[in-house]
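Many groups now describe folds with learned vocabularies. In that spirit, our science desk offers one protein's residues alongside their backbone shape tokens.
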Amino acid sequence: MSVRLDHGDLDLEEAHEINVTPFIDVMLVLLIIFMIAAPLATVDISVDLPASTAQAQPRPERPLFLTLKSDLTLAIGDTPIAREGLAPALDQATGGNRSERVFLRADKRVSYGDLTQVMNLLRTAGYLKVALVAAETD
């Protein structure tokens, strides 16, 4: 508030307005800082992930297991199949139901790239519901 003490002709009245311009300037500067800093906070870091301790989910009555062995051969259940015959073998095993979940088991010596190739084959065949099977840990 501003008040003039002498009672001259130029009386100043009290100012009842709040000057918000500095507040807006500060908020815009903070917005710019957060817009620049937020993408820098999401950095990819290579980590050695621990084993899963998640609760086991109930299995369906007749699960469809696709196994990737250490020699990179595939098997549906106990029947070995060729990679080229994966889609027809899955269609035969599921009766053409592509929304059925496929449980993918892989030997731990199989590389991540080989596992990804099998998952790509499943996606190409139209089977998008894939569950990865792992050993339970305590």
About this structure: The longest helix spans residues 21-41.
